[in-house]
């Protein structure tokens, strides 16, 4: 049986969902799954990973210092020790920062942002978007270790009742770059890449203060993040962390609601893989309606508050 | 300081690709090209580093000769010289072979700080920067939105899902540039004239084999046809109904 090492990120004492999806993808490939967790508080997270498919969890408790080059070295060493033929991480900021370094240490190429995997016999194949999702490429890999980052919200979490063997691992030294501080996001806001629901506003919102309407709709859902088009980010109305699109973030939520966004090709590139798309736009010919599952034609200033109230009412019933 | 910006020429973001008859390659006839969006930021940051710390900026690309058009623009903005690693195989290169070829050249150039884009907007790998740094044993900070450079070291801010990280690093280093780091300047007439006298070297390189090959290229599955559920606020109940009972997301 092949072994796959999966890098598991955690935040506030919990494994990131996207990392659980990566564990799920490794498990679904029929592999022996070894998870790797880092940090002084990693032990608690480690003990939960057996349920999500890990047979073994390597805990790098470290010395309190955080450094991507060290993490990569430690992970690559683990891949070698375990004789793994593949190494996965979620395509999040830290996964994307880490995996190229792990791949380089293993002299393997990297397959980024994969949306499909086929490890059943023959050369392993990965499926991944190119040109911002305008093309889907199936690639055959001849890398010694199949290194891949997996797009969040794409692979299923496999929850069961397993338990994992937990082993403590030493961290290496010689750090080339060191994290000195992190300024946490205010109010624990959800990131657009991870949120199951994204409500995005565009230039149709007319002024930055009107994004309160977008925020209220997101808040009504309870598990939604606020996104934005580049036009409003460039205008300084919204932070660029919220920009969805080819030069922003790529999102695949369960539900994407585009409000006052025309649907330029660069915007569609970032959200066309959402499961369900809703468009609210006063122009019935706006290109966003071509990709939307459900459209509402009309004034956002009238529709959004009504939608917010309706969503609140439904959530109150539960 | 010896500063290098690595840049890649990519199809314009509006490009609608066609799949060639072999089902494995992109039919690029009629494509227009641009410097990858983030590489403009890399060029700008390189020029700013020179303006602050002195030294020289080299712009480096692995690609077709035609990329010299984009390099010329970087020279017009203030870069000093440019190198094209002339690549007959530019359309098919994987992240590893790109990174290894660039790493070798960066070492030859004696680079102390290298600016790259967060991601090239063609293959969307977001891999080459940290890959190059690891091959060379250098520091690397990815997705940088703010940077302070000094002799031998630097401090960078990067945006993550959880907030903004501050990272201290030693040079040599690779910095990958994210939106927000700077506003790229435009080239002026004076710069364009000056650029005509600046050198663009086209050189050969020792190839590194790919570890991936395309088995198949497809268009994304067509989304099933949607529909307009209503007009104005009066359409909200129909939308809610569709979200609850059809899409089952509420
Ligand atoms: C290299 C490059 C990269 C790019 N990257 C991105 C990217 O990553 N993400 C991105 O989003 N864009 C990107 N763009 C920009 C893109 O081309 C569009 O310019 C941008 O998406 C437009 O934003 P918008 O839809 O908010 O604004 P507009 O195109 O101005 O659309 C506003 C919409 O609001 C509607 N509207 C107006 N008033 C109301 C109202 N009261 N109620 C309801 N609807 C209303 C209008 O009908 C219109 O459809 C990029 C462009 C380039 C060249
Ligand atoms: N062929 C290339 N020539 C020069 N630089 C490149 C090349 N490919 C990638 N890069 C650099 O690496 C960055 C990230 O590219 P990628 O990893 O392909 O997304 C780009 O923004 C460039 O700065």
- Subunit arrangement of the protein: heterodimer
Q: Quote the CATH topology of the largest domain in chain A.
A: Rossmann fold
Strand content of chain B: 25-35%
CATH structural class of the largest domain in chain B:
Alpha Beta
Question: What does this entry show, briefly?
Answer:
The complex is a heterodimer of chains A (318) and B (250). Chain A is an alpha/beta fold and 318 residues long.
Report what the structure shows.
The complex is a heterodimer of chains A (318) and B (250). Chain A has helices spanning 17-28, 42-46, 68-82, 93-105, 211-221, 230-234, 265-271, 288-291, 300-317, and strands spanning 3-8, 10-11, 14-15, 32-38, 56-60, 86-90, 110-114, 116-118, 125-130, 135-141, 146-150, 165-168, 177-184, 197-201, 224-228, 255-259, 276-281, 294-297. In chain A, the strands form 4 sheets. In chain A, strands 7-11-6-1-4-5-12 form a 7-stranded parallel beta sheet, sandwiched between helices. A 5-stranded parallel beta sheet of chain A has the order 15-14-16-17-18. A 3-stranded antiparallel beta sheet of chain A has the order 8-9-10, with no helix packed on it. The termini of chain A are far apart. Chain A folds into 2 domains: 3-169, Rossmann fold, CATH 3.40.50.620; 197-317, Rossmann fold (3-Layer(aba) Sandwich). Chain A is built from 9 helices and 18 strands. The model of chain A has no long low-confidence stretch (mean pLDDT 95). Chain A is globular and about 60 Å long. In chain A, helix 3 (68-82) packs across helix 4 and helix 5 runs parallel beside helix 9. Chain A has 318 residues and is of the alpha/beta class. Chain B has helices at residues 37-53, 68-77, 95-109, 128-136, 189-195, 236-246, and strands at 2-6, 9-11, 18-19, 26-27, 33-35, 56-63, 81-86, 113-117, 139-150, 153-160, 163-170, 173-177, 200-203, 212-218, 227-231. Chain B has 6 helices and 15 strands. The model of chain B has no long low-confidence stretch (mean pLDDT 96). With 250 residues, chain B is α/β, with parallel strands linked by helices. Chain B is globular, with a radius of gyration of 21 Å. Chain B has 2 domains: 2-203, HUPs (Rossmann fold); 220-250, no CATH class. Chains A and B meet through helix 3, helix 4, strand 7, strand 9 and strand 10 of A and helix 3, helix 4, strand 9, strand 10 and strand 11 of B. Strand 18 of chain A pairs parallel with strand 15 (227-231) of chain B, so a sheet runs across the interface. The site of adenosine monophosphate has 24 residues of chain B, from helix 1, strand 6, helix 3, strand 8 and helix 4.
């Amino acid at each position: 049986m092949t072994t796959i090492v999966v890098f598991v990120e955690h935040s506030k004492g919990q494994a990131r969902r996207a990392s659980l999806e990566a564990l799920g993808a490794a498990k679904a490939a029929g592999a022996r799954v070894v998870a790797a967790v880092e940090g002084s508080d990693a032990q608690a997270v480690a003990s939960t990973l057996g349920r999500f498919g890990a047979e073994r969890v390597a805990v790098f408790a470290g010395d309190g210092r955080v450094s991507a080059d060290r993490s990569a070295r430690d992970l690559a060493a683990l891949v070698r020790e375990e004789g793994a033929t593949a190494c996965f991480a979620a395509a999040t900021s830290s996964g994307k920062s880490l995996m190229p370094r792990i791949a380089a240490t293993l002299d393997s190429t990297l397959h980024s942002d994969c949306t499909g995997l086929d490890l059943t016999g023959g050369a392993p194949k990965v499926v991944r978007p190119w040109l911002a999702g305008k093309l889907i490429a199936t690639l055959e890999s001849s890398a010694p270790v199949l290194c891949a980052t997996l797009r969040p919200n794409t692979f299923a979490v496999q929850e069961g009742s397993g338990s994992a063997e937990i082993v403590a691992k030493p961290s290496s030294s010689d750090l080339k770059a060191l994290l000195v501080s992190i300024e946490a996001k205010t109010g624990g806001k959800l990131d657009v890449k991870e949120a199951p629901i994204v409500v995005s506003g565009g230039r149709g919102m007319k002024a930055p203060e009107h994004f309160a309407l977008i925020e209220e709709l997101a808040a009504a859902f309870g598990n939604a993040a606020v996104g934005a088009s580049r036009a409003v980010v460039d205008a300084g109305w919204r932070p660029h962390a919220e920009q969805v699109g080819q030069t922003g973030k790529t999102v695949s939520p369960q539900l994407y609601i585009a409000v006052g966004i025309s649907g330029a090709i660069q915007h569609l590139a970032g959200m066309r893989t959402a499961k369900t798309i809703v468009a609210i736009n006063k122009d019935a010919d706006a290109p966003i309606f071509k990709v939307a599952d459900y459209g509402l034609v009309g004034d956002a200033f009238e529709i959004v508050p009504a939608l917010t109230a309706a969503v609140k009412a439904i959530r109150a019933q539960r | 300081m010896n500063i290098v910006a690595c840049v890649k020429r990519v199809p314009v973001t509006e490009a609608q690709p066609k799949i060639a008859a072999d089902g494995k390659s992109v039919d690029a006839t009629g494509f227009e090209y641009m410097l990858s969006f983030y590489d403009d930021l890399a060029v700008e940051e390189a020029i700013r580093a020179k303006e602050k710390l002195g030294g020289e900026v080299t712009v480096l690309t692995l690609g077709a000769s035609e990329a010299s058009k984009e390099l010329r623009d970087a020279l017009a903005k203030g870069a000093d010289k440019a190198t094209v690693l002339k690549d007959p195989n530019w359309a098919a290169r994987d992240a590893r072979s790109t990174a290894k070829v660039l790493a070798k050249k960066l070492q030859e150039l004696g680079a102390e700080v290298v600016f790259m884009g967060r991601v090239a907007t063609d293959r969307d790998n977001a891999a080459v920067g940290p890959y190059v740094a690891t091959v060379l044993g250098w520091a690397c900070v990815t997705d940088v939105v703010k940077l302070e450079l000094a002799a031998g070291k630097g401090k960078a801010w990067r945006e993550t899902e959880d907030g903004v990280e501050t990272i201290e690093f030693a040079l040599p280093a690779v910095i990958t540039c994210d939106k927000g780091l700077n506003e790229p300047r435009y080239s002026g007439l004076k710069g364009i004239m000056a650029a005509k006298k600046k050198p663009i070297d086209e050189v050969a390189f020792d190839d590194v084999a790919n570890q991936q090959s395309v088995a198949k290229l497809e268009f994304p599955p067509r989304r099933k046809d949607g529909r307009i559920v209503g007009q104005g606020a009066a359409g909200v109940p129909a939308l809610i109904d569709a979200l609850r009972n059809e899409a089952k997301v509420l």
